[in-house]
C-alpha cells in the first residue's frame, strides 16, 4: 500500500498512538468537530452519559493530518479501528482534506454515524455544557475531557469557538461554588 494520510480532530491530534513521518495542519470541509456522541464508558455511564467528539456533517474542521508510511498501513489501520470503532458509532471514510500548504490529499477519517443510538445530535453550547457537567466514566470526568481538548487545540494554534463556548459553560457553574 502507498503512504496515506490520517485526519485527527480530537485526541488523535495530541495522542495519535501510531507511527507517522509528517504532521500538518489540515482542514476537512463538509464536517465539523462536535460533542455529538453519547459516551457510556469513557466519559459517562449508561445511566449518566457524557459527550465525546465526533465529526458531524456541516461546516469545516481544522485538525491535523498525519502521513503514514505505506509499509505500516496494516498495523496503523488495525490500531485505529481498535481505538475508534469500539461501539461502531464512527464510520471509517477516506475524505479530501486541504493541507496548510494548499495541497489536497485523501485522508482516513472517522465520522459519526447519525443512525447509531449513541449519536447525540446537534445542540447549543449551553446544552452540551449541561450534559457534560457531572458525567464521569472509566477515563475520568467529562469536564476534563472538554477543557483538555480546548487547551490542546489552543496549544496547536487552532480555535474552535463552539467548543470553547461549551468549556466556558462548564466553567461558569463552578465559579458559583
Automatic annotation (TrEMBL):
Coiled coil: none
Molecular functions (GO terms): glutathione specific gamma-glutamylcyclotransferase activity
GO cellular component, one term: cytoplasm
Family annotation (SUPFAM superfamilies): Gamma-glutamyl cyclotransferase-like (SSF110857)
Keywords: Lyase
Keyword Lyase applies: yes
Classification via CDD domains: GGCT_like
Biological process according to GO: glutathione catabolic process
Annotated protein name in UniProt: glutathione-specific gamma-glutamylcyclotransferase
EC numbers: 4.3.2.7
Enzyme class: lyase
Organism of this sequence: Chelativorans sp. (strain BNC1)
Keyword RNA-binding carried by entry: no
Amino acid at each position: 500500500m502507498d503512504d496515506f494520510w490520517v485526519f485527527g480532530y480530537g485526541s488523535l491530534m495530541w495522542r495519535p498512538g501510531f507511527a507517522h513521518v509528517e504532521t500538518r495542519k489540515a482542514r476537512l470541509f463538509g464536517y465539523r468537530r462536535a460533542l455529538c456522541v453519547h459516551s457510556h464508558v469513557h466519559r459517562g455511564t449508561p445511566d449518566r452519559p457524557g459527550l465525546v467528539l465526533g465529526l458531524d456533517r456541516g461546516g469545516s474542521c481544522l485538525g491535523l493530518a498525519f502521513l503514514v508510511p505505506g509499509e505500516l498501513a496494516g498495523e496503523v489501520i488495525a490500531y485505529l479501528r481498535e481505538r475508534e470503532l469500539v461501539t461502531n458509532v464512527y464510520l471509517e471514510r477516506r475524505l479530501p482534506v486541504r493541507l496548510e500548504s494548499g495541497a489536497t490529499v485523501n485522508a482516513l477519517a472517522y465520522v459519526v454515524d447519525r443512525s447509531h443510538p449513541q449519536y447525540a445530535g446537534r445542540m447549543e453550547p449551553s446544552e452540551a455544557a449541561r450534559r457534560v457537567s457531572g458525567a464521569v466514566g472509566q477515563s475520568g470526568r467529562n469536564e476534563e475531557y472538554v477543557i483538555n481538548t480546548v487547551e490542546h487545540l489552543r496549544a496547536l494554534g487552532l480555535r474552535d469557538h463552539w467548543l470553547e463556548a461549551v468549556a466556558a459553560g462548564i466553567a461558569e457553574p463552578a465559579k458559583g461554588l
